[in-house]
Specification:
288 residues; alpha/beta; Rossmann fold; Beta-Lactamase; 2 domains; five-stranded parallel β-sheet; five-stranded antiparallel β-sheet; 10 strands; rod-shaped
Length: 288
């Protein structure tokens, strides 16, 4: 970044001498003979450091730098004047309008060191402003992300609650079906079993089926048929015997409406037997 310095003094020999001194450090140097001319240059140029004489006609150096502070607060402002004028500059220093007071005649090395320090201060202010802006942008983006996440969580929570209600309704419907329904997971364990299935396959409903290995629940011939993997959609009910009673079974592979690779076993109301009538009575809340 180019370092630009503005010299303001009504004595041209002073600004010329300062220009010769400062040029060796590669600064871009602007010169003005009055405060008004200095304000005009500041309106058209990005200036980092200003050195102004205190005793100038029309506008003193502190008056000029006070206006500069209001219009260009990021500049670093230095007064260059005699010892006798220190009292008139002190108030401006206390108010922050002036960064430093340098005396005439100046020592070259001391003035160069102070100008170098002033530019470092200016660049630090600019960098701090840039970092602050980036931080504010990051905070704003983070708030936006948090708001979006909150909306997603709220939506997901609502979706879960809806799914839970649907699941509860589905479970209630399943429990009241007048048929036995067993869902067998691909791992060979029973994942779903309604009330009628418990009554049929677990000694009148005295034993839980869900979580049991299907091989411990179904008769071998029914088990082999259910897990054979060959069940066309148009396949009709197939007869089997459970505890000496004939039942009519249908089997469907799952996965059409879910990610399950298991099978669904349905014991239908195909046989008018005493056993089925007992199932029906249980499913409707009666007594067998």
């Amino acid at each position: 970044m180019e370092r630009t310095i503005l010299l303001v003094d009504d004595e041209e020999n002073i600004t010329a001498a300062l220009t010769r001194l400062l040029r060796r450090d590669g600064y871009n140097i602007l010169r003005a003979n009055s405060g008004q001319e200095g304000l005009a240059l500041l309106a058209q140029n990005q200036v980092g450091v200003i050195i102004a004489d205190q005793r100038m006609p029309g506008m003193t150096g502190t008056e000029f730098l006070t206006k500069v502070r209001e219009l260009h607060p990021d500049t670093v402002r230095i007064v260059l004047s005699g010892y006798t004028e220190l009292n008139s500059v002190t108030d401006a220093i206390n108010r922050g309008a002036v960064y430093k007071f340098l005396t005439k005649p100046w020592e070259d090395d001391l003035l160069l060191a102070n100008v170098q320090e002033a530019f470092q201060r200016h660049e630090m202010k600019i960098e701090n402003a840039r970092l602050t802006q980036e931080l504010q942008k990051a905070i704003s983006e983070l708030r936006s992300v948090n708001q979006e996440l909150e909306q997603r969580v709220e939506f997901k929570t609502s979706e879960i609650m809806r799914n839970m209600k649907v699941l509860q309704i589905s479970q209630e419907i399943l429990e009241h079906l007048p048929v036995a329904v067993i869902g067998i997971g691909e791992d060979g364990w029973i994942a779903i079993a309604n009330r009628t299935a418990h009554h049929v396959f677990s000694a009148g409903g005295s034993k839980a089926l869900i979580g049991e290995a299907v091989r411990d629940v179904l008769p071998p011939d029914l088990l082999n048929w259910a897990l054979s993997g060959v069940h066309p959609e148009n396949e009709g009910a197939k007869p089997f015997f459970v505890d000496g009673h004939e039942i009519a079974c249908r089997c469907r592979s799952m996965g059409e409406f879910s990610r399950s690779n298991g099978v669904l076993l349905i014991i239908e109301a195909g046989m008018q037997t005493e056993l089925f009538e007992n199932w029906l009575a249980v499913s409707q809340g009666g007594k067998s």
